[in-house]
Design brief:
Length: about 425
């Protein structure tokens, strides 16, 4: 069950009552020292490696995995959402259909189809479950935000501005407010767009105001090609970058991933999570593959493009990405040593297409409480893509040996 906003914020703010450092212990055997001496934020520091015996794994509870010949179910999925009672909303991209599954994995309903009419879709640019259990789905091609009941019945739409689209382009929080992900600042030198942030929506879809995450400094590495008025930009696979997420209680969590630090911008007094991290090198042949990938991508814009700019990084940033779960916990995907993909598991080399990747990262998450306390480390299947978490439950998108997407629910081997 989603925690009340007041309880989570109280957990954060209660640490500010005194000026002495507090020590919080985790079941992983590490301690978090919470320093409240700075006036603008608390600092939650955790050091040390998690012992192998304390690393949590995941246990499969549910898998919805259609095979390649099953035309009655989804065939390609990039996103799904989870209701508070465990029901699943899965968007099938080729069919432009929304599948509703029960918490037991049984299919309950299929709604929608390709088109521009009520309840029809051209694209899924992001969906969220609202506090009243309705589902909102952004369709940027049709320039609208569609609303469905908890049972999948189409209700109504809001018209939203056209001209920009992105994946995962809508957010909400426990207040019920809806936000669109869009560029919200002027474009800076070297950028194609302004900084991404949130536009707060009023009822009906009108814009109210915009919000932008703290601008944390990070040295960006990117390569640009331009020709005939077109411009493309790409960066190395293992490059530090600025990331942000919207907390379910209505504030930003952000990181410049060149260091293992996260900023929780809670109102009143935020929290900075600081964690030590070992250097993780990038193998030389993985760097060579990445340079080949970038060159091929940019020659799609300018066929004469030649390599220019900084070299491919030799060390991975400590943070790969992070997610804020609906219970307020922060799941940080950390960099791990590269492992070479067995030839039998690599896709075929296709004419005119990049070579399949040579390496993959073992998927490991470190999890923190909303107040910054380190909770533990979780080892995940390599193909698992985080979608949602709540308590000891975790939902992921995972591909099988035939590259078919599966919707999977795991539980932690040991609760936090």
């Amino acid at each position: 069950m989603r925690p009340a906003r007041a309880l989570v914020l109280c957990c954060v703010f209660s640490l500010a009552c005194g000026n002495e450092a507090r020590v919080e212990e985790s079941s992983a055997g590490l301690t978090t020292v919470i320093d409240s001496t700075k006036p603008d934020s608390l600092i939650a520091r955790t050091a040390g490696a998690v012992p192998d015996a304390a690393v949590r794994t995941v246990i499969e509870e549910l898998r919805i995995q259609p095979d390649a010949e099953d035309t009655s179910s989804f065939s390609e999925v990039y996103e799904f959402d989870v209701a508070r009672d465990g029901r699943l909303y899965v968007f099938d991209d080729p069919g432009k259909r929304l599948f509703l599954f029960g918490a037991d994995g049984a299919m309950q309903k299929v709604v929608g189809r390709k088109g521009g009419g009520p309840g029809e879709f051209e694209r899924d640019n992001g969906m969220v479950v609202l506090r009243d259990d309705r589902l909102a789905i952004l369709d940027a091609t049709n320039a609208r935000l569609n609303f469905f009941s908890a049972d999948g019945e189409f209700q109504n739409s809001w018209v939203v501005p056209a001209g920009f689209s992105t994946n995962d382009g809508v957010r909400t929080d426990t207040s019920g407010t809806l936000y669109l992900v869009r560029p919200v600042t002027p474009r800076r030198d070297g950028d194609i767009l302004g900084r991404m942030g949130l536009v707060r929506l009023a009822d009906g879809g009108q814009w109210r105001d915009s919000l932008v995450a703290p601008d944390l400094p990070v040295t960006r590495i990117y390569y640009t090609a331009s020709k005939d008025g077109g411009t493309s930009q790409t960066g190395p696979l293992h490059a530090a970058r600025f990331l942000w997420a919207w907390h379910p209680h209505g504030f930003f969590v952000s990181s410049a991933t060149n260091t293992y630090e996260l900023e929780i911008s809670a109102p009143g007094r935020g929290v900075r999570i600081v964690r030590d991290a070992p250097e993780v090198p990038v193998p030389d042949d993985e760097r060579a593959w990445d340079q080949e990938r970038i060159t091929r991508n940019l020659r799609g814009t300018d066929p004469a493009w030649v390599w220019q700019g900084p070299e491919i990084p030799k060390v991975k940033p400590p943070i790969r990405m992070f997610h804020v779960a609906r219970d307020g916990r922060i799941w940080v995907a950390v960099s791990t040593p590269s492992e070479r993909i067995p030839d039998a598991e690599r896709g075929p080399v296709l004419e005119g297409r990049p070579r399949p990747p040579l390496y993959r990262d073992r998927t490991a998450y470190e999890v923190f409480s909303p107040a910054g306390t380190f909770l533990g480390r979780v080892q995940m299947p390599a193909s698992a893509m985080f979608m949602e978490a709540d308590g000891d439950k975790l939902w992921v998108l995972e591909r099988d040996a035939d590259d078919m997407p599966g919707v999977v629910r795991y539980r932690l081997s040991k609760p936090f």
